[in-house]
Amino acid sequence: MTDAPLFSAIGALIAAEGTDEFPIQLAAFLRTITPYDFTVIFGYRGTAQPIDLFDDFPARKRAVFVTDYQAGPYLLDPFCLAATKPVAPALYRMRDLAPDRFYRGEYFRSYYIQTGLAEEIGFFVDTGRGTMVIVSLMRAKKPFSSREFAALAQAAPVVDAAVARQWRTLAETFDRPVEAGGHGSRDEIERASSASARASLRSANGRWRNIRSRAIRPKRSAGCSASRRERCAFTGATSTPSSAFPRRASFSPGSSPRWRGPEVPGIAPAGHPWRSRRPRRMKAIAASMMPLVLTSA
What we know:
Elements: H1 3-15, H2 22-33, E1 38-44, E2 51-55, H3 59-70, H4 78-83, E3 91-93, H5 94-97, H6 106-110, E4 119-128, E5 131-139, H7 146-154, H8 156-166, H9 170-180, H10 186-216, H11 226-235, E6 249-250, E7 258-259, H12 273-296
Antiparallel strand pairs: 1-2, 1-5, 3-4, 4-5, 6-7
């Protein structure tokens, strides 16, 4: 990377301060250092709903990354949780701030997995009075390498100074709804946000479970009998050849039928109706064949 494009990007960033072009020039400056897919800039204060200051998502992705996120899942976002501590202004990887077992948690399973991101990193900038701006850089295909992360980290002083000046009145934006009386007290906002988060995660989790159940539900074959469909439910197959389930009975007059076919692990666990009906089925076969056995004897 030569210095000329970098210095040009810094000049454009300075010239755009105080205008709507600033976040666009900020993203262009960061992409001069290393390429990435998406930029989103959120303002945070406590558990209040974060403010979307800028994003460059296409409309379809914005519904997940911004609209759904603001509906409540942000309360479990590692970036949001770190911003409320707050952490020292710097560049962070999300995985470094995420709690243990993050990838098994409700936030990841119910919301974050829908984003399809390979990695998300963010510049944390303190804008005063308890507010924090996070400039998130996202990649969909591969994580940032150690070298790319280090190069971006060197730009942190520029990002910190520029962002702090651009959004130095962010705290007033958070105060405005409360002063106007349109959204109630701060405690009411926090309670509503918590309830919204729980409802949003429950809804998202329900949608995800429905998708999974449709994906793994075995299809019924037109030629499947009722008993074979029961076996299909265990194997996930659409149909099962009869040779895979040998059923041979050996009996003599006055004796009970005995199952001689091989056990098939995982097909019908103990206590399943198919297994519990097997002795009755064999008794019925024995009873129907008894007159033939006596006649031949």
